[in-house]
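task queued by scheduler; priority normal; single chain, no ligands, no partner chains; default sampling; output format set to structure tokens
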Amino acid sequence: MKSMGLFLILVFSVEVFAKTNLSSDFYFVMKPTEYQQVIEKQVKLELDEQLEDLEIEEPFTTKAERINIKANVTFNLQHTPGEPNHMSFSAEVDSLSLMIGLISTNDEVVTQRGNIRLVTKILGSCQGFEASYDGRSVSLSGTLNLANTDVSPAAELSISEIQLDDSWALAAENCDGFEGYEDQVSKALVDLLTDEELLKEKLQPQLQAQAQKQLDDLSNDVLQPQQKSLPNAGTMTFLPDRISYDHPSLSLVVSGEVRSEFLGTEGVTEEPFEILHRDLLQMQQSQILLSKKFIQTASHQFYSHGLYKAGFESQEIKSMRDFQNNRLFQFFVFPEIMKFPRNANFIINGYLNSAPTIRYQGERQGIIYWNTTGKANLDSYAPKSNGYVPFLRFLTDYSVSGWMQVKEGKLNVGFYSPDMKVQHGWFKVYLDTYSPNKWFKKNPIVKEIKDLMKRTQFDFQLPEFPIEGHGDLKPVEMQMTEDYLHMIYELDPVLAN
């Protein structure tokens, strides 16, 4: 239900005469506790790839060909507090096996006995050789170096530790060679497979690709443009173009441009605002950082381009319905209303006579206080048999203090200490046609308007940032510093089904 507190909104509007484009740098900072819920997910990886041929030198030269490695890996990426430019990871290899198509030996063993030199030809082969790891779980750990690039961070992964033992089960489909050849090949193969460097070499590219994918997924989410329509005015668009990591806090920082376009009929004004001091970012909290000058200028444009312009009808407002039903009150305050039925529906529209002046008065516990002054007109139209007729005009010098805060993801605006000097006059067409009783006691009406303004609140939708599969980053608080507005965000997680 609308109330007469809409008076303030209605008077903050004028006709549109020009088109104005405002642009500003902006930073969107996501603290680790927010984005780690996206990055720090447990991922199951399947490794299935061909390896290059391997050569075993001891006890005799043996070649392994057509090697296929298969592994199931559980990968975890973690934020590392206090470690600049790095994240950490761990992985568990849940299963690991190699299939070797052919193992072949063609070597010579030379022995010297006195003057006699013996050359022994070593020949042997095994086909379909399978090696399955059956020891304790293989664990890996290491670091992920984050290098900022032009668009999104690049991941460089390094495995620092692998823990595995020599428990392998080996079997071949068939082997040909000297007695004990298969056993000797199996032992040499276990020694090779237990070499940490081999496993590190084969797993590292796979793990690095997964870490980069998780970073890219996050980048793709937060680098999406966000456009908001401004009713009767135009659009406001957030255009992120770069994602980086702040050091040493590892906060994710999205930078870009916010543009507000206010529609009109002639002329274009461009007014850019820059954010120059990255050190003002409060890395402890996820937030959007905007220039306060941009906000102030945009606020003037909101008003002057009719963002808050909206006519209303008297029957929509309880206090006006009550007034129209109270004939005794009308008799002493506004007797002309008595000529109309109790359910008569008056139309009221408002507009500015001058651009409003807005002053910020401080911020406390997430609530920003402000004051606005200006001149406004409020026109009313009376219902008659032949339609609506211009009725009464109010001319107002106003001074209104108010507050705004983030509440349930929206900008919540309220008012207090309204003060207004009101003059009124009758439209000539009404005077000439209907010869009204011009007695009007404005003080009770003005008092009612002030009381209703203090009880009126408005909500405006603020931008949210969806993180696919994890929920939405939603605004929860505003803070104002000398030059900047900080819009604080928290992740509102998706509830499990």
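post-processing summary
- The longest helix spans residues 196-222.
- The domain at 6-33+223-493 is CATH 3.15.20 (Bactericidal permeability-increasing protein; domain 2).
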